């Protein structure tokens, strides 16, 4: 290289300037990097970052060794911030919020498990290794780029100082006059803003942990004796069912809604012929795009459980859940059907479930459908075979989590004859002929189409089960746990999910006539919207429960 430089001085100088210019571009781009995908536009990267001006002033003033050390450390810090911003981009895309540096590390493991189920273990492993290498590369490149820029500035301090003063004057002029390009201010303080944002998020997380622990100890029904809980539902088989990712977008988006709405309307009519009627409304979920367990615990506990720390706090406590309210009466057997659970699930005790069937306890011998361990139709038939169809001394309270509409929505099961389900082997050909996740996972339009089909399948499986096996004493509450990811629902979608109460006994629906909900399974656009955490107390009150508060 030295020989080449000596023999080609002009080319060597041009190459050196090009590398320095590239290093400057890398540093400035990192200082301006947005943390939301929709903000990636040219105007965002044509601004003047004040942090670059402050950093240049420091590097110009320092002697060589301190300058190298400060530039390297600054580059590492900028690399870490860049990684955080890129992580925010993905979290905002999938979960509708930024990455929490305290609470969200364990979700990275869940993401790898999801990739393993969707695209295979080899792909998931390669993705994990690639992500680790990318983080290391970003930090290293940022450190080298900052050192390179610092060295260039120090070669001619007088020239660099004049240039810095000129750009600083330009920044102050743009800031004073609020000069903008495409609505974006030219004078930027983006990195300072992002650092403040992350610092405030850390403080908020710590404060929230303390405040929520106190909130979770108070419970309007915490001391209510079992004899005064849900007396209006005595003798009923009660079923709470979540449909994965079933959100408002499924009912209102122009691509998904036609098929889903047709399914809801057809199912409403079929249920009516079987003697069932429904009322439906909207609940605002505590989560978005994923983290289904946060939606489940929010709905069941009446507490706003929107992060992992709150989830740990509430499930470790004694706050009454809807499911535990039925167990506490002593008048119901309580059962959970959890096809998505593939390891120990200690939360069963908090939910008040006498028995839980996980992915390995329902006798399924068919193929997985991407992340989903079994089709919803099979899970419901297993519930019927193992619990609902048995003769029993008490009515049954079932808590069922359906998973066929979990992303990536490929392949999707198809309905088969209920008498043909057997051990699930009938689904092998359906899974093999289905769409592959890799074919749609990066295609928003196809993802929306397949998502809509998956919701149609789940709703059909559940309502057909009710038509086939429900009776005069069956009461079903079903809802979505959250909206699908923004690639499907859009960047500014609400967090609303549909919720329906279905029963044959007209007295059951008469009890909620004051809620203002829509008749049928499809809630009207302007139907009431409640926070999901409000449902527990409204439900308990509607069915005759008497509040006896506890303070912990």
Automatic annotation (TrEMBL):
Signal peptide: none annotated. The keyword Lyase does not apply. Gene3D superfamilies: Alkaline Phosphatase, subunit A (3.40.720.10). Coiled coil: none annotated. The chain crosses the membrane at residues 12-33, 45-62, 69-87, 124-151, 163-181. The keyword Membrane applies. Keywords: Membrane, Transmembrane, Transmembrane helix. This is CDP-alcohol phosphatidyltransferase. It comes from Streptomyces tropicalis. The lineage of its organism: Bacteria, Bacillati, Actinomycetota, Actinomycetes, Kitasatosporales.
């Amino acid at each position: 290289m030295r020989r080449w430089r000596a023999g080609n001085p002009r080319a060597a100088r041009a190459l050196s300037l090009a590398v320095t210019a590239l290093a400057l571009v890398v540093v400035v781009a990192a200082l301006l990097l947005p943390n939301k995908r929709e903000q990636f536009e040219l105007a965002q990267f044509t601004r003047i970052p004040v942090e670059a001006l402050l950093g240049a002033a420091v590097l110009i003033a320092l002697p060589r060794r301190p300058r190298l050390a400060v530039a390297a450390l600054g580059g590492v810090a900028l690399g870490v911030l860049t990684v955080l911003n890129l992580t925010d981009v993905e979290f905002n895309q999938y979960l509708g919020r930024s990455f929490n540096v305290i609470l969200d590390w364990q979700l990275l493991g869940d993401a790898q498990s999801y990739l393993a189920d969707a695209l295979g273990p080899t792909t998931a492993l390669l993705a994990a290794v690639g992500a680790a290498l990318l983080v290391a590369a970003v930090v290293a490149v940022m450190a080298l780029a900052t050192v390179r820029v610092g060295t260039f500035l120090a070669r001619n301090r007088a020239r660099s100082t004049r240039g810095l003063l000129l750009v600083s004057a330009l920044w102050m002029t743009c800031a004073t006059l609020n000069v903008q390009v495409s609505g974006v201010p030219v004078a930027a303080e983006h990195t300072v803003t992002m650092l403040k944002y992350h610092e405030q998020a850390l403080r908020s997380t710590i404060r929230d942990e303390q405040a929520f622990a106190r909130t979770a100890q108070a419970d309007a029904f915490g001391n209510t004796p079992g004899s005064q809980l849900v007396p209006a539902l005595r003798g009923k088989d009660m079923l709470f069912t979540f449909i994965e990712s079933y959100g408002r977008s499924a009912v209102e988006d122009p691509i998904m809604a036609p098929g889903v709405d047709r399914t809801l309307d057809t199912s409403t009519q079929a249920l009516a012929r079987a003697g069932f009627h429904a009322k439906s409304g909207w609940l605002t979920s505590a989560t978005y795009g994923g983290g289904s367990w946060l939606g489940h615990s929010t709905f069941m506990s009446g507490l706003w459980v929107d992060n992992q720390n709150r989830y740990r706090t509430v499930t470790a406590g004694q706050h009454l859940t809807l499911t535990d309210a039925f167990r506490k009466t002593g008048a119901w057997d309580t059962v959970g059907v959890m096809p998505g659970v593939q390891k120990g699930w200690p939360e069963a005790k908090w939910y008040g479930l006498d028995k839980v069937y996980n992915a390995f306890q329902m006798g399924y011998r068919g193929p997985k459908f991407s992340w989903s361990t079994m089709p919803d139709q099979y899970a419901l038939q297993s519930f019927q075979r193992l619990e609902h169809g048995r003769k029993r001394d008490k009515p049954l309270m079932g808590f069922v989590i359906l998973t066929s509409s979990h992303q990536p929505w490929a392949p999707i099961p198809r309905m088969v004859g209920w008498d043909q389900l057997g051990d699930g082997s009938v689904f092998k050909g359906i899974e093999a002929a289905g769409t592959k996740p890799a074919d749609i996972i990066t295609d928003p339009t196809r993802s929306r189409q397949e998502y809509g089909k998956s919701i149609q399948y789940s709703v059909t499986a559940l309502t057909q089960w009710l038509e086939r096996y429900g009776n005069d004493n069956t009461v079903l509450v079903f809802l979505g746990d959250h909206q699908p990811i923004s690639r499907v629902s859009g960047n500014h979608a609400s967090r609303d999910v549909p919720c329906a109460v279905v029963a044959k006994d007209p007295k059951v629906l008469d009890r909620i006539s004051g809620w203002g909900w829509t008749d049928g399974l499809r809630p009207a656009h302007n139907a009431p919207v409640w926070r999901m955490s409000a449902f527990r107390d409204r439900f308990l009150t509607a069915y005759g429960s008497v509040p006896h508060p506890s303070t912990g």
